[in-house]
Amino acid sequence: MNYKSIFNLLGILLGLFSLSFIPPLLLTFVYSESGREIFLYSFIFLFFLGGTLWVSTRQKNLPLNISDGFIITTMFWVVLACAGSIPFYFFGLSIGDSIFESVSGITTTGATTIIGLDTLPKSILLYRQLLQWIGGMGLIILAVAVMPALGIGGGQLYKMELPGSHGNQKLTPKITDSAKALWKIYVGLTVLCATLYLISGMSLFDSIAHSLSTVAGGGFSTHDDSIGFFDSGLIETVCIVFMLLSAASFAVHYAAIFGGKPLKYFYDSEFRFFLSVIILIIMISLLVHIISNSYADIFSAIKSTIFHTVSIVTTSGFTTENFSLWPGFLPYLLLVGAFMGACSQSVGGGIKAWRVLIMINQAYKEILKTIHPNAVLTSKIGSKVIDAKIAEKVWGFFSIYVFIFMFLLMAMLGTGLSFESAFSAVGACLNNLGPGLGDVASNYTNVSGIGKIILCFAMILGRLEIFTLLVLFTPAFWRR
Question: InterPro entries of this UniProt entry (predicted)?
Fold first, then answer.
């Protein structure tokens, strides 16, 4: 294990992350706000620390193997989350709340402990949005280039779609090619989203701020009422479109934009399955709303149902109302949809649609084998045959996911939360969703300090898709 290379990269990460303090610093001058010293000193401190680490560990060759990859991917979120908490602390949040807010932002979860967003300085509001945008950008590279190389992501489905996504045993320079292409897509979506928000009626500040979190699949807003603050069907439509685009695989985006295959969205089996689940949940929810007469008119029911279903299932977490007050089982139905989450190699959270699709195919195959014991059957997603080893990894992931979920649920119940609040809090944080039910429907201020630490661990676990972090706790990893 090359610790010198790891610390060298850590220095680079801290140096680059320190640049995130510059836009909010400039905003303090534009709006004549206080707090510019906080961003200025935070920038100087992290830039100096990162530069010192980089210079002291610099060497000509920086070979990185699989073990280094696991540490680096974990380090990205853990270290940057701690670094990102500095401005929150000096703006008045406690240490625990500052770390929680930063972890939630960098993991694009969207859970918050802050009340009164409308009264906060625009500089700190923009900083919150930037945290999510940076987290989403890092996640794309992790999901498309790094995780397949480590054998734990969904890249097995798209081996030939992207440069660098070949499942190599070493992190190669081809990842740089992937990064450049993916960042172009990511930045392009952000600019387009901001432009459409602006045209739809948002202010320039709100359009930029919300585009950062929408494209990142984060859910942070500059208002306590989230997207509902604007009360605009046009703004909600723009938000829906970009939440869906962010939940789609960036390998599919790459194939459509750079590979000359614009119809890839319609042919991709995972994306079709993902959309079919959303449509099914919309139909069930709308039927219940109509039967229970939840809304004054059918148009309001359709509008709210579509928005919240897309927002929750994609794990974006934007809201226009308190969906936890929906009738019957509907709040839990949306939460179950978030357990599936977005597509592989996207900025969304959850188990991922490709894993659910593989499990369904595998279960169906086992049923057929029970009926026809001698039949030779294979699992497929579209035209792709799923290797038995991949199916085995998926079921292994799901087993660990269930065990981790139950463990975290017991821990949260031990902090005094009700079952509804604890269940939804763990589900929302482990799936990087944000809003939950009960006491955590709008914010997490009622969660104890220990509970927030547990949920921070859940957010990082979910963002790293569990295996990446858990492997570091095994003695076998450190004996490599």
Answer: Cat_transpt (IPR003445), TrkH (IPR004772)
